[in-house]
Protein 1
Amino acid sequence: MVVILLGPPGVGKGTQAVRLADSVGWEHVSTGDLLRAARRAGTELGKKAQAFMDAGELVPDSLILDLVRDHLKGIAPEAGILLDGFPRTTAQAEGLEGVLEAVGRRVDRVVVFEASDEELIRRLSGRR
């Protein structure tokens, strides 16, 4: 099963993804975590991503999709997957379909988290 968790920053996607993944034994996939791990490991994709970040640019959707594809290939076919805040763009959403198809999966559910603007500002201000 593949479940996508979407919503604005500060709404609790990551917190709930970790809790849910831990409680049911699923794989929690965060593109931020994948990027940091690839950079630390010095992989080719990590080096490419680092070059964009060093230039103050966003990492291209195609590179994010490659990171996700590589990661998903290493997950057992029977394991559940929680995609935390991914996809973020239309291009990523369209590309994800092909990535999942390549690993014999499909999106089963999408959960959208919501909170008031006031609550999001309160939560994000507390992170400083």
Protein 2
Amino acid sequence: SSDVCSSDLDTPEQLAVVKRCIVEAVGPQGTAVLKADDPLTASMIEKCKGSVTYICQDGEHKVVVDHRQRGGKAVYVEDGMIMAAEGDMEEPIMPVAGVPLTHGGRIGFQIENTLAAVAAAWALGLPRETIRAGLESFGSDMDKVPGRFNLLDIGGATVIIDYGHNPSSLKSMVAAMESFPHERRIAVYSAAGDRRDIDLVEQGELLGDAFDHVVIYEDHYLRGRQPGEIIRLFRDGVAKGSRCQQVSEITGRDRKSTRLNSSHIPLSRMP
């Protein structure tokens, strides 16, 4: 029933209409898990034929409170504890810091992923003990979820590997790194060519604000762009950033065709 073609998506609102198809497909006996503090997602309840469980890190969010007052279900965090509530009834699941995926409760977007998993498991009727066991045993190890905030210690340096490749995911990554007290940061970053110019420039600016040295690489995922175009747009964004002082480029997908160019952003362009 969506009225937007998947090949013509230019705004988050249009993308939400397409993503909403999943919610529209939920049957009367099914459950949709929706993010309460995202208006585009929260409003999908109007298109759901089944029930809805809202998730939110803030249990006092108005969408959560109103939903519970109508007898609805919600999963949220309260005083460091994951809570599952239905109407006036609520039950603690486990401390969020005890979920390895959240790295001691420091990674906000992984907390949200955890809440979504709890809500889905609850909808499937799994016992609380089973849900807890799953949470306690699931982390972001490379062998379990490669490219999803894998945290490594290499030679005394903290290395984070994540597949985030759009502005919203990069913002979440930068926010997560605030809990790591490192003075110098280096980013190796890329994105596919089928992104809007403004999105690539915005990602560059986010990198320029958060890292001291940015390494931009471009391989075969040009997807309609000319070689070097992705790097140019990233550079345009990085130059607007307030922190980065060095930008490097890597092109090519294998060692034989790789070249590394490095340049320093003049200090006069720093605030």
